[in-house]
Design goal:
By secondary structure, the protein is mainly β. It has two helices and 33 strands. The chain is globular, with a radius of gyration of 25 Å.
Length: about 500
């Protein structure tokens, strides 16, 4: 392939080389070859004025929509490109794939409108920073942004009626751990030309970082209410990876009703996601509300052959946020559905403290129990659902709100937890039904677990926590019917918040 990182002595003239054969084995072959030698990062060198532009100047660098790839009638996708500059300085190579052949896509200055900024040199070797795909998402006659690949190995997508929010990554290495986190990046992409009438776009990506190289194949399908992204990831570690995060999701949680101590804000909540949802290998559906902790916190949910996990946004009304600009009620949820047997490991949740809404402080991923050995291939396949919500077991009521505060009983101050539930079989129970609240704590004492109907199909369960001398308590609760079968998903949390 005419690829800078794969061909010694590469120069700008390589951009003019003839097309080369391409198939599903091409990028894995490149990744294996990369992993067999020392890491060499892509160039960050930029000519003036690109090297020192700020955020506002970078925003003036806009791709011209009329220059989008595949604008021919009947093609269901269009591609636009991102210019290098600001924090996106790495030289990312792009290739177009058509009929089994790949051709490098050289930089062309006329693709961009620079507004009041001075245009950079028209150098074919300048390359790009990333790409985005457009498709008819909200209506059949308009191409909306569907998915964007920009920065390290980050990508994010939307579905009908939703706006960008949380991100996915190709790989997480050391998220929340002591020491610096490693951020492998997608240093090259191959875009397959969509066929007329095809409902899927295919993007290949070459991952590279100091510890690992990898090959990714993304099959992207806008389905209206959700956008599906099938990921086939092949990893080739240079060293043993003990802290690999597979299918990582990254989001933001600042505060909500259950975690707003010290918050002075007119809005009732600010977050891109409000909980981690799990469907474990035993078929139990779990909800863990997110928190903004006082210090970095790690939570591991051990499992074998997980069926799914995701960072979800369940609040969907403007009144939930009261933010006309942020529109957090339109942020997507992202659900990871493993394909095949992922074996033993854990869904790992990292929550970092934050004092604002501008940086991501939540990470969730799958961490295999066994380290990823160097010098061999490790393959993970999964489907990403970008959607409003994803309820794998719709017969179970799901948590819609978590609240806690000081209770008052006999002159003492226990902690009162209140969990609201909606949907599933719970909503259709007869008037005389009496579900049982099953609640437990790892320390301290739980008292007065109760469940009662709120109306409109919703129920509430609550209990008091008397922590005693405990400094950390893991909490668990759910509703059961008269036979002991679950009526709701399992709610998990931790005290102190």
């Amino acid at each position: 392939m005419p690829l800078l990182l794969a061909v010694p002595g590469w120069s700008a003239s390589a951009m003019a080389e003839a097309s080369t054969p391409f198939d599903d084995g091409t990028v894995p072959s490149l990744a294996r070859a990369l992993a067999a030698r020392a890491y060499a990062p892509p160039s960050r060198e930029l000519p003036p004025p690109l090297d020192d532009i700020d955020y506002d100047q970078f925003r003036d660098y806009r791709f011209r929509p009329e220059q989008a790839l595949w604008r021919e009638a009947g093609v269901p996708f269009q591609a636009q490109l991102f210019h290098r500059g600001f924090i996106f300085k790495e030289r990312i190579e792009l290739h177009l794939v058509d009929d089994g052949s790949a051709t490098p896509l050289p930089y062309r200055r006329e693709l961009f409108d620079f507004g009041p900024q001075t245009p950079p040199p028209d150098d074919p070797a300048l390359a790009y920073a990333g790409l985005r795909l457009h498709a008819p998402v909200n209506s059949a006659d308009h191409f909306d942004e569907l998915i964007v690949f920009l920065g390290a190995s980050y990508f994010r997508a939307v579905a009908k009626g939703l706006a960008y929010g949380l991100s996915a990554r190709g790989l997480a290495l050391g998220s929340g751990d002591p020491g610096p986190e490693e951020f492998p990046l997608f240093r090259a992409f191959w875009l397959e030309r969509p066929a007329r009438g095809n409902d899927a776009a295919i993007v290949h990506a070459l991952l590279d970082g100091p510890s690992v190289a990898g090959a990714y194949r993304f099959t992207i399908r806008p389905m209206g209410e959700e956008t599906l992204v099938d990921v086939d990831a092949r990893l080739y570690p240079r060293v043993e990876l003990r802290n690999a995060g597979i299918a990582p999701l990254t989001s933001m949680f600042e505060f909500d009703a259950g975690d707003r101590a010290g918050v002075d804000d007119f809005r009732p909540a600010v977050h891109d996601s409000d909980g981690l949802s799990l469907l474990n290998g035993k078929g139990e559906q779990v909800w863990r509300p997110l928190r903004n902790p006082a210090q970095i916190e790690h939570s591991g949910f051990q499992d074998t052959r997980p069926r799914g996990f995701g960072l979800m946004q369940r609040k969907r009304d403007f009144a939930d946020f009261q933010d006309a600009e942020g529109a957090y009620e339109k942020r997507p949820s992202a659900w990871v559905e493993p394909q095949g047997d992922w074996g033993a490991g854990e869904v790992h949740l990292v929550e970092l403290p934050t004092g604002n809404e501008f940086g991501d402080n939540i990470v969730a991923f799958w961490r295999p129990k066994a380290p990823l050995a160097a010098g061999r291939e490790h393959r993970f396949r999964y489907r990403l659902h970008w959607c409003r919500d994803h309820l794998w077991l719709p017969q179970l009521a799901h948590v819609v709100a978590t609240r806690s505060g000081e209770g008052d009983a006999d002159g003492t101050r226990p902690r009162l937890f209140v969990i609201d539930l909606d949907g599933g079989r719970l909503a259709a129970l007869p008037a005389d039904a009496a579900p049982r609240a099953e609640a437990s704590a790892s320390a301290g004492e739980l008292r007065n677990p109760v469940a009662y109907r709120l109306g409109n199909g919703r129920w509430r369960m609550s209990f008091e926590l008397w922590p005693g001398d405990a400094t950390l308590v893991e909490l668990r609760a759910r509703l059961l019917d008269a036979s002991g079968a679950p009526l709701s998903e399992t709610w998990l949390s931790r005290w102190p918040a």
